[in-house]
Amino acid sequence: MDRRSFVLAATSLALVGCTADSADNVTSLVPIGADEGTLDIVVMFSPSVVSAGIPQRMPFGLVRDGVFVLGPGGEEVAVEMYNDDTGTLVFEGSASGRVVAHSHPDNVDPDHSHADVVRYFAPTLTIPDPGRFRFVVKSGEQVAAFGVNVLNQSEVAVPGIGQPMISIETPTFDSSGPVDPICTRSPVCEFHSHTPAQMLAEGKPFVLLVATPSFCQTQFCGPVLDVLIDVQPDFEDITMIHAEVYENPIEVNGNLGDPNLRPAPVLAAMRMDYEPSLFVVGSDGMVIHRLDNVYDETELRAALEDVV
């Protein structure tokens, strides 16, 4: 799926019908919060990276009237995953609501409207086998679901948890390559002095955040970069690296529909069709965590603390 449209397209999957054949004993589905207005599920992960046999972080949001909410059942919802073919329950757990917040640069109005008030849920589960599955969210007696196509690991190029990180040369202040600008944040962030290839060769832990604050299609890239900037002083032993998504956004005047717009080399190297994504990599070169699309400070700190 095109990275520009996966979040919007995923919204159309919200509150789809689910029968006893596809979700075991879930036979009557009612939109969550139906008595308070329709509450849609927004899928915050790319279907192209969900693979079997390794932990999968599968963030989603609940939206009412265009506003992210935590749900009428409180800040925790039940999450289940069923095999669509057999009706077998393969995961049963819960997810707590999280809120993305961040500090603002001096030149930004703190009341500006964007995703700094995104509320989301991010369960992590391991799906044993590839196939078609039904992701079910429950809040009290209210239930909603959407379908997930789980792939073989060999079909997914983006490194996941427990897999080796790909050696990539990203733009730096000293060597920007074809990417201009190397950082679209204002002011420019400081995470452009090292590359993943360098850190892997030196055997040092690092974080790679692939995000474009000025041109992000999901509106999360700016907030998640700001969250990373906020926590960096507490994790000085971990090198932070930020890589932009586009090679020439200024050349096309910021028109993301321009056929001459080129993806940055980092996207091609990992065959990514979405953004933002943050990779936490240990000194052994293995991915410890991958936080796709959205994360809050608590979730980021927990991921970074696993490195120390």
Report on this model:
With 308 residues, this protein is an alpha+beta fold. It has two domains: 6-155, Immunoglobulins (Immunoglobulin-like, Sandwich); 196-305, 3-Layer(aba) Sandwich (Glutaredoxin). 14% of the residues lie in helices and 26% in strands. It has six helices and 14 strands. It has helices at 6-11, 20-23, 196-202, 221-231, 265-270, 297-305; strands at residues 40-43, 55-57, 60-64, 67-69, 76-83, 89-99, 119-121, 124-126, 131-139, 142-150, 206-210, 239-243, 277-281, 287-292. The strands form four sheets. It has a five-stranded antiparallel sheet, with no helix packed on it. The chain is globular. Residues 1-35 and 109-116 have low confidence and may be disordered.
Series of secondary-structure elements, N-terminal to C-terminal: HHEEEEEEEEEEHEHEHEEH
Shape category: globular
Number of strands: 14
Structural class: alpha+beta
CATH architecture of the largest domain: Sandwich
Number of domains: 2
- CATH class descriptor name of the largest domain: Mainly Beta
Largest sheet: 5 strands, antiparallel
Helix proportion: 10-25%
Oligomeric state: single chain
Helical segment count: 6
Q: Mind telling me the CATH superfamily name of the largest domain?
A: Immunoglobulins
CATH topology of the largest domain: Immunoglobulin-like
Largest sheet strand order:
7-6-5-9-10
Produce the secondary structure layout:
Elements: H1 6-11, H2 20-23, E1 40-43, E2 55-57, E3 60-64, E4 67-69, E5 76-83, E6 89-99, E7 119-121, E8 124-126, E9 131-139, E10 142-150, H3 196-202, E11 206-210, H4 221-231, E12 239-243, H5 265-270, E13 277-281, E14 287-292, H6 297-305
